[in-house]
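Consortium newsletter contribution from the modelling node. Members have asked for a concrete example of what our holo predictions look like. Here is one, prepared for the nickel (II) ion complex that several groups have been discussing at recent meetings.
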Amino acid sequence: MEVSLEKLMYPIGRFVPSADFNSDKLASWIGSIRSLPLLLDYCIQNLDEVQLNTPYRPGGWNIIQVVHHMADSHMNAYIRLKLALTEETPVITPYEEQLWAELPDVTLVPLNVSITLLHALHRRWTTVLDNLTHEQWERQYYHPGNKEYVPLWQMTNNYGWHCSHHAEHILSLRKRMGW
Ligand code: NI
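And here is the predicted structure:
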């Protein structure tokens, strides 16, 4: 079966931002963030070194890089969240995710280290998210790369998708390979 590049890159579809938020939507987005570390434990279960070094698509990151990328991305997200809660519309610093994925903490460190990091990070992250007031959900930061003001509810919507998006890269690879 031929799988399109689009389907390989976006196995759950591209991110479609919600127009608004309510408590059900927030619970679902936070739920995706909360369950990611455990989901990753499941995603990599019983994979050997060769399998972990397999790209999820031609020219794409391998499983180890995908997991380290999630740690990179979510550390940035957590900092952005805390900046937006403690400063007035802070300008956040975009980062070069491709170049971050080529530094030694990605190329030389086993992926278990980043999964452990994600367990701890997501515990702190979701504890903040679980306790935001309605006014705080409307607080925002400015992303100078995208030239966008991003409210915290929208950011949480985006990162909920990001968790499922990358976990599915691994799960769909396993399915295709029969692992
Ligand atoms: Ni990503």
